[in-house]
Amino acid sequence: MNCNDLLDRVYEYAGDESIPLLLRIRLGVHCFFCPQCAREIERFEVSRDLLRDDFFPPAPDFEDQVMAQIDREADEAGQDAWRPVFQEAAAGVSFRSWVIAGLVMLVSLSTSFFGMDFVRVAQSLGSSFLLPVGLTIGVILTGYGALFIGSHLKELSDRFGLR
Questions:
Q1: Residue 15, CB half-sphere, CA atoms under 13 Å: how many?
Q2: More confident: 144 or 91
Q3: Which residue, among 98, 95, 103, 91, has the nearest Cα to 159 in the 3D structure?
Q4: From its phi and psi, is residue 162 left (phi > 0), alpha (psi between -120 and 50) or beta?
């Protein structure tokens, strides 16, 4: 068994403390004759122990206290505690701000074709450059439109009389 195979077997049993006896004997004999593998296995064990014990400090147990506080606030208000958070988040940006931001994005993306560097690069690379640029612009505008419609669906349906 060469060094790489032996180290692979050691890494395979990294999380399991019960290494088979035959492998343990092979490891001991190999490490006795190969100091490089012995150092590598020692480094591996030290780093494994560091990651297991010292890497993540113990987290404080706040979960029960936070959930109890949420339940108390929900009982006091007489409603579901999560509903007001989502309603405020959806109505955080006004309809006008979304439209203005969308128009600015549309103008900036469509005028990028008129830059001097864009023309030079587009002529030298051809469709292998224009296809990804067109797809990127299309994905950005489609995603923005989907977010806009999704966040203001009620306003849009009321405005255009859709029910």
A1: 0
A2: 144
A3: 95
A4: beta
Neighbours of 34 (CB within 10 A): 15
Residues 6+ apart with CB under 8 A from 27: 6, 10, 19, 41
Residue type, 88: E
Contact 10, 27 (CB under 8 A): yes
Q: Which range is least confidently modeled, 16-30, 66-80, 121-135, 137-151? A: 66-80
| Whole-angstrom distance, CA of residue 152 vs CA of residue 94 | 9
Q: Are 74 and 80 in contact (CB under 8 A)?
A: yes
Up-side HSE of residue 31: CA atoms within 13 Å toward CB? 14
> Nearest-CA neighbor of 40 among 55, 52, 50, 30?
30
| Torsion angles phi and psi, residue 64, rounded to 5 | -65, -40
> Between 116-125 and 127-151, two packed helices, what is the crossing angle to 10 degrees?
120
